[in-house]
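Marked as duplicate of an earlier ticket. Keeping the data here for the record.
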Amino acid sequence: MAIQQGPWTRIRPLQIDEVDDYTASAYEQAILTWGHSPNNLIKVMGHCPSLTITEVPYANAFIFDIDVFNNGKQFAGFLERPLKELLISRTSLYNRSRYSVTHHSYIGYALFKRLGREEEGFRKLLHLHVHESHRELYTARENACLDYAVKVARDPHEVTDDEFNCLKHVLREHNTGKAAADDMTDFDRQFVAKWAAYTPPQHDALVDSQIVEMTWLIGHFCLLNRWFTALQVPDEGPQDEANFQAGYEANVPAEIRERNEAILRGQF
């Protein structure tokens, strides 16, 4: 039985039965680690097998992996998942990239909901495209990180030394538990607890790791946003192997979906 193929415009997504076994194994890895659903990201990337094979572990290393330690040294997950989803969506909204905006609205909202922070997630995601006008909805650290994301996406030359040093200070205050009480959730306090015994030099190194990870995340999504848009990678719909659009409409609040469409204006 043929695998269902939905509409496409510029590059046809390749189905798993059209690629070699090594590439097919990457498809399966993407399905298992990215929501148990076949997706057009990996199917379009299938035209370049080496990219496909390396994409999943590469992307997971700075997007989805958390608390990865090896012989007592942290290897990944320097920033927590909710902040990463805010940064991904802020970057993608700025770049007006449909595939990233829709999929990470779904992923980000589901994440906040799963953590018991649905109302907070709704407010933050809804106003994310104009976070500068709704600073009261975000913590000092989130505001600093979102400001940084916009500048890196627009023109990284705009990031001043003062802003960079302020970002480092805000991150360190958070990591050491010295941020204002209303700027840290119970989730935040639990996340930073593993660093409680760090020495000052270790905290300096941790902040550097966080900024490197954050900047890579923003830069990667600037690349991915442009890739999705230029190739016009479509959301998976009812004619595809898996219907992402149905899940998006059923699970992402209408206000967020309407905001997305107002920004995307029917484009990729």
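See parent ticket for discussion. The chain is about 60% helix and 5% strand.
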